[in-house]
Design brief:
The complex is a heterodimer of chains A (345) and B (268). By secondary structure, chain A is α+β, with helices and mostly antiparallel strands. Chain A has 9 helices and 21 strands. The chains are: A alpha+beta (345), B mainly alpha (268). Chains A and B meet through strand 7 and helix 4 of A and helix 8 and helix 9 of B.
Chain lengths: 345, 268
Amino acid sequence: MALRIDYSHSLRPFDAHVELTVAAGETLALVGPSGAGKTTTLRVVAGLLRPDRGMVAVDGETWLDTSAGLERPAEQRRVGYLFQEYALFPHLDVAANVGFGAPRGASIDELLERFRIGTLARARVRELSGGERQRVALARALARRPATLLLDEPLSALDAHTKTTVRGELHELLRELGLPTIVVTHDFEDAAALADRVGVIVGGRIVQQGPAAGLVAEPGDAFVASLTGASLLPGVARAAPDGLTEVVLDGGGSAWSTDAATGRVGVAIHAWEVALARETPDDSSLNHFRGAITSVVPLGNRARVRVGDLVAEISSASLDRLALEEGDVVVASFKATAARLVPLA
Amino acid sequence: MLVLATGVALAFLVLPVVAIFARVPPGELLSALGTEAAKDALVVTVKTNLVSMALILAFGTPAAYWIATRELRLRDVVVTLVELPLVLPPAVAGIGLLAAFGRLGLLGGTMDALGIDIAFTQTAVVLAVTFVASPFYVRTAVAAFEAVDPALPAAARTLGAGPGRVFFRVALPLAAGGLGAGAALAFARGIGEFGATIMFAGSLEGRTQTLSLAIYEQFDLDFDVALAISALLVIVSGTVLLSVKLLTRWRSGSTTPIPFAPSTRTSS
């Protein structure tokens, strides 16, 4: 029971070519900038958009095969589609929304209870909070008994406070359901939290896919690197003694990496790999950049400190101990082994 | 300055309406409505307008839905054609209807052969009213269907609803307020129809003479009766305008731009 997709469709200003297989019980996150073809992929699977060419098959059932002239209408494809902003019917109450796609005679009470919306059965959509709307939309999508789940930005309509809780619940639910699932999001953190595999889609093509941790560790290009939250220092790479690569940075100075590369590259470095000190430390780090702190953003027990083009993530304890403030001149250091080199156009 | 200009404009617009009621006491107005001519005209008007509204709703609603939901290359052309009767001078509409359906008209020969003679019958009144009133409904209905969030019918389809169910369970209820407002406007226009009707259907008392035509005829015979019928039409028109405002305010789901809608939009 897997979902297989392969389609081409002309989108202005580019053509989308997407080929994907999502296994039963697997969640794939499609991440990328707006207009990259994420939602288009969901619409092709659901039958809301007929691609110029392509095929969609779920669980051995072919839903679309343009070469054979086969196209099953949207209403006959068993998808659970969670729309961006949820697309709940404003003229129906919660129970009628959830029951809309349920098979004749099916009881929806169990679903209402399961999603903790039983007491809201008679409520109108506009009376619901963001989190409640999301649960109603999920219950409605599941009432259809779908063969695959398509979630379009399931968390973006929620405020930061509810988001973390809802994300945890959603992850749990996806695991329980065991359906091939595609989650579209622009937020790498959400993708990493929900999905087994992340596909980065840019300009209608999947440029890299793999487990979230793999993308963080080995970003294939500058876009993936910045998507995963890495700082990017552009420059020109050349081979240096000791098997290292020296990158002469556009912003002045050099950075060293253990990755091999030549030509224009970006040095991608994650915030948690960057250490801060008042004076240049005498340690194993090869890369040291002196600069003034431009911002300090506390995040619970951590803080993100920006020094020039670099962002360092340090514990609040370290921040207090070093007594760092905006305007202070510090040294940001990272090891050559932590510096990933990605090609730049 | 501004207040003065507004005051003059308002007075100018309201004065004729007030004058209708001011000239004759209400009791006499009622008894004038009891005359044969007035009663006949009322029956003709109600009958022809009901048939006409039924036709407009039955054909106009699916047409508007189709125009609003298909990505038509010629959408603007189609909408302009629908709107044409709105701007056509009534006399032109009358001549056009005669030229199309009259005995010597485009379809006259065919209809003659079938033994149908439309001109100067109640059928002609229905055609004239439908011709001038339907654009008011169709263009409002197109706007109402277009204002339905496209994600909602799409969601309905992914939940297994075929085209019929999408229309009746999602599009129609969400557009209902706009459709009601459009129907009210078309009804108001139909009740007042004069020019096309008098040319195409004539003004035969008890057969084709509607209330508007009766006002024109009574104007020479009995001015009080003309005033009484006018007063009745003022009340009908006022009620329609009020109901359009209420319908637009009552609408829940969509936000349709509708002519004569309340200018201060309340988000409900």
